[in-house]
Specification:
heterodimer, A: about 120 residues, mainly beta, six-stranded mixed β-sheet, five-stranded antiparallel β-sheet, B: about 110 residues, seven-stranded mixed β-sheet, four-stranded antiparallel β-sheet, 11 strands, about 50% strand, globular
């Protein structure tokens, strides 16, 4: 099936540092979503992007929908210990009509560790 | 409280013994979906449902069945489980596919 390449796979940073992660695909997406999964929990939506070029912030988080529709990035500024978790990008394919409309593809995840 | 519930949370079973994982949501969502999570592979979609009686395959449907007889429930059925279906399973729901999905707490399945 369609794959999203998410990088980096893991990050070890010091509290206060900024973080950047991204997702790329060979296919065009019409929606990009960023989720965070805390240990032992299900993922929770952080940011949703619906337009190419869109730049959206949610507190210390900023995400952008790439202009080519094939990529997206998520930045976290001034990281804190509670930022620890797995971050996933997810996308819905462009022109995914008919029965493919409901398909969502997730990236492999970025495991973030923050040292106090 | 708005939520997605899954049962059981943990299950250890043996190869070939049919099992069902239930999923229920109380948010009147039309879209529901099942995922499996494996290390290094992220979340992979198994099946999804756009509405009652409307289901379709995700990226990894082999060995699974689903049904959507009521809006709130979306059970995942493994007719003959095999060890390669050992995984962490999540059910999720939302109003439409690209809107915010609410995930259940997960079901950790081990098939011996």
């Amino acid at each position: 099936g369609q794959q999203l390449n998410q990088s980096p796979q893991s990050m070890f940073i010091q509290e206060g540092e900024d973080v950047s992660m991204n997702c790329t695909s060979s296919s065009i997406f019409n929606t990009w979503l960023w989720y965070k999964q805390d240990p032992g929990e299900g993922p929770v939506l952080l940011i949703a992007l619906y337009k190419a070029g869109e730049l959206t912030s949610n507190g210390r988080l900023t995400a952008q929908f790439g202009i080519t529709r094939k990529d997206s990035f998520l930045n976290i500024s001034a990281s804190i210990p509670s930022d620890v978790g797995i971050y996933f990008c997810a996308g819905q394919l462009f022109n995914a009509g008919g029965t493919s409309y409901g398909k969502l593809t997730f990236g492999q995840g970025t495991i973030l560790t923050v040292h106090p | 409280e708005a939520q997605v519930t899954q049962n059981p949370r943990y299950l250890i079973t043996v190869t070939g013994k049919k099992l069902t994982v239930t999923c229920s949501q109380n948010m009147n969502h039309e879209y529901m979906s099942w995922y499996r999570q494996d290390p290094g592979l992220g979340l992979r979609q198994i099946y999804y449902s756009m509405n009652v009686e409307v289901t379709d395959k995700g990226d990894v449907p082999e060995g699974y069945k689903v049904s959507r007889k009521e809006k709130r429930n979306f059970p995942l059925i493994l007719e003959s489980p095999s060890p390669n279906q050992t995984s962490l399973y999540f059910c999720a729901s939302s109003f439409y596919p690209a809107s915010e999905q609410f995930f259940g707490p997960g079901t950790r399945l081990t098939v011996l």
